[in-house]
Design goal:
The chain is α+β, with helices and mostly antiparallel strands. The protein is built from eleven helices and eleven strands. The radius of gyration is 32 Å and the shape is elongated.
Length: 353
Amino acid sequence: MHWLPLLAVGPALAAATSRPWGVLRIGVLAVALGAVLGIRGGAPGRELAIVLSALVAVTLASSLASVLRGRRERVLAAVRSVAEAAQHALLKPVPATVGQFQVAVRYSAAAAEARIGGDLYALVPTPYGVRLIVGDVRGKGLPAVGTAALVLGVFREAAYDEPDLLEVVARIERSLARNLGPDDFVTAVVAGYPQDGRMEVVNCGHAPPLLVRASDVMAVEPTRPAPPLGLGALTGELPSLQVLPFTDGDQLLLYTDGVTEARNHSREFYPLVDRVARHVSDEPSHTLAALHDELLAHVGGRLHDDAALLLLRKPAVANSTSAADHQASAGSRLASPPKRTNEAAVDVRCDSN
């Protein structure tokens, strides 16, 4: 008789995983089992009635809890779907190939349920070459998401309109100066590839990109440090344009501080430069997949800050491409009008026939 109240554990636990009808079925089974055991054990009728009434009450309460849990799950699913749609609108998927580059992106929000955060990235082909941005908004939550949307919107417009990369940065700076508070700012790296063999980089208070050439990994430190976007008016310093040689096989990795400041249980930072040298390959997607998996293992499975990785690689011109170009040029020569000397040769052959 003293152990019969433990039958209430069944419907109580079922409320966490089962639907209301499943909870009711388990509750009915618990009440029936309690009645059988109580009668066979010779339990007093009054005490048995109290125990069975308690089982019925727990079953009904568990069914109600199951109903409420189902509603919360549906609301959460709807919110996550909206957040996922917002992420696709804000951080548009980047194709594997943009222009003459291979591209890969990895993004992880610290709030896994929200799917979006304050880190931003974009890569767009423009009349002035491929241009990209990777940045980090100060703060978290919806205000950071709104600021990220503002920066990306201005960048996508300015990247098409402005031939000078510094003017693209200046337009973002002016927009943030009008819309941000005095304590808000955005660290960012803006890069562009206007012509073969030349990569332009503008660093505004952000972590230095990593240039991967063969097996060497070098941090591209800014020649003249510049403040983050949104703070230019306070310091009066203008960002500088840095030009890097960028040829076939070179790779450029842009990232946010959520990667380099990730700590393990021993409070050690993630050694990004060493890990890039270990995992670099000719496929940017494979490189970032290995880095991302190792980063999650380093922190124990859950990041405490937003993290973004964008890897750009300029592949070498394949022999098949050269052969195809040669064949196309040969075809164009055949399709062009024959020269006068060829016409004379044809006339000679016709006369001889």
